[in-house]
Amino acid sequence: MGDGSSLTRLRVRYGETDQMGTFYNARALEWFECGRTDYLRMIGQPYVAMETRGVYLPIIEARLWFRGRARYDDELEISTCACMSGRARVRFDMRITQSASGREVVTGYTEHAFTEAGGRALRPPQWFLEAMGRGESGRSENAIG
Amino acid sequence: MGDGSSLTRLRVRYGETDQMGTFYNARALEWFECGRTDYLRMIGQPYVAMETRGVYLPIIEARLWFRGRARYDDELEISTCACMSGRARVRFDMRITQSASGREVVTGYTEHAFTEAGGRALRPPQWFLEAMGRGESGRSENAIG
Amino acid sequence: MGDGSSLTRLRVRYGETDQMGTFYNARALEWFECGRTDYLRMIGQPYVAMETRGVYLPIIEARLWFRGRARYDDELEISTCACMSGRARVRFDMRITQSASGREVVTGYTEHAFTEAGGRALRPPQWFLEAMGRGESGRSENAIG
Amino acid sequence: MGDGSSLTRLRVRYGETDQMGTFYNARALEWFECGRTDYLRMIGQPYVAMETRGVYLPIIEARLWFRGRARYDDELEISTCACMSGRARVRFDMRITQSASGREVVTGYTEHAFTEAGGRALRPPQWFLEAMGRGESGRSENAIG
After folding, report:
1. What was the ipTM of the complex prediction?
2. Residue B86, C-beta contacts closer than 8 angstroms, at least 6 positions apart
3. Whether A13 contacts D33, CB under 8 Å
4. Percentage of chain D with pLDDT > 90?
5. Is B57 helix (H, G, I), strand (E, B) or coil?
6. Is C53 buried (19+), middle (13-18) or exposed (0-12) by CB count in 10 A?
7. Number of helices (H), then strands (E), in chain C
8. C6-142: what fold?
9. What is the DSSP string of A58-81?
10. CA–CA separation, C67 vs C11, rounded Å?
11. Is the Cβ of C140 closer than 8 Å to some Cβ of chain D?
């Protein structure tokens, strides 16, 4: 991923493994969420503040490719960037790799609508588009681990 | 457990195992919650209805004894009963066993306060105490699987 | 879905909700796994027995569409069927609906490779293909809840 | 906690909240595990290396006191220390607080046996006792975040 991506580091928890000895697949969606959280913080619009302002980003679609193993206590890096998908949705692209080797573990994306608390669709707020635009031209040194 | 206990059946999910090959310990607290849900339904006060009425049962304390293994796809039974703990708390006792062999997997309890949505303490409602009293003298044929 | 699909029923656990008040998205992948487990049991090849025989089905890809809300204690139905995807992969299609209303909650699929315990690719075993073939022409009365 | 305790920092994930708006109780046991992992790394015996040497620490008992709220994206600190409990068990004490305010969120402990991979009880290895002894006299600057 390019310039405007955020970087998240985490270690695989024991409870995230399953009896196959690698991470359990559903945890990848939870790691994707960690990536989104750090991306939104990086562009100056932490998601906790967005919900406070009444803007929610419910997930509409997700796609995941499982590309490599990750074991208990492995350190992983999540690289996240975002772009608009049509006029009404935002799409986050995530790439999870092994910190030590750089090998891919999971890649994928999630798409989200903009809604108010009650679920009614919202037009994407101008301040969000502007923040994302700045994020896209930002640098990865802004990344938050 | 005696008469007024509810019975919950579930199968260990693959995602509930860890690399030791048995269930991951935190899942036991989630299974306890399944037991509480079925107990409250049995006594006629489903928790979803309680929250709608503005009565919440946040957890205050939990204790768990891990007594045996449970593997992927094993069928487990959760036996749950409840009593008041002092004047202001309700305590649920849970016992999880292997359906096939009856062997114990986890036992323990959780204690809960009564609060309104905002977290302010409530006196335990009379209708709850009455329902629980009837539950204690009920029979396990009322159990919901 | 048609004839050869299995049916799984479950209730949304409290711990499966998030602060948006609906289920947390990663749980859908866990529910998909419950669907696969019941499908494989239905066709006479429970996954626990497959791993014992040395045949593993690690996940390669997943896609999910989030179509509706599901709240704590809602009863959901998972309809699962399977087909080969190329010569080396099996694909499971899942459709999760509200039991009461039939409204869709999540749809999607997962694709899996065939490997031995160590991760080396296996040719799909003949007994698996045959069981799946029978499943495809089976009936939903074989479904396991 | 005193000198020989490790320090873990994490942020509450969105998927760790529930519809009450605070973290879901079972996640506390997962956070306890993060604390244990960092404690064992601090004393020079990472758990991943222990399992490689054939020494497992299955959980026998857990106790948790839920003392305060923690919301999505709150930064938490886990302070972990350990001592022997009788001759055959190790006990970890965990204290989770809000990083910003220092307010307690969850406190508790877990007790663990020493076993080999197959589950047979082991005498606590001398190298473990020595590492723990050094940990107890160590300093918190050794902490790993």
Report:
1. 0.91
2. none
3. yes
4. 86
5. coil
6. exposed
7. 3, 5
8. Thiol Ester Dehydrase; Chain A (3.10.129)
9. -EEEEEEEE-S---TT-EEEEEEE
10. 18
11. no
The correct answer on CATH 3.10.129.10 for the domain covering A6-137 is: yes
The pLDDT tens digits for C31-60 are 999 999 999 999 999 999 999 999 999 999
CB distance D111 to D85 below 8 Å? yes
Residues D2-35: pLDDT tens digits?
468 999 999 999 999 999 999 999 999 999 999 9
- Determine contact: B73 vs chain C, CB below 8 A: yes
According to CATH, the topology of domain D6-138 is Thiol Ester Dehydrase; Chain A (3.10.129)
Residues of D in contact with B30 (CB under 8 A): 26
The model carries a pTM of 0.93
Residues in D touching A37 (Cβ below 8 Å): 11, 13-14, 73
The predicted-structure confidence for C91-129, as pLDDT tens digits, reads as follows 999 999 999 999 999 999 999 999 999 899 999 999 999
- D contact chains, 3+ CB pairs < 8 A: A, B, C
pLDDT of residue A137: 54
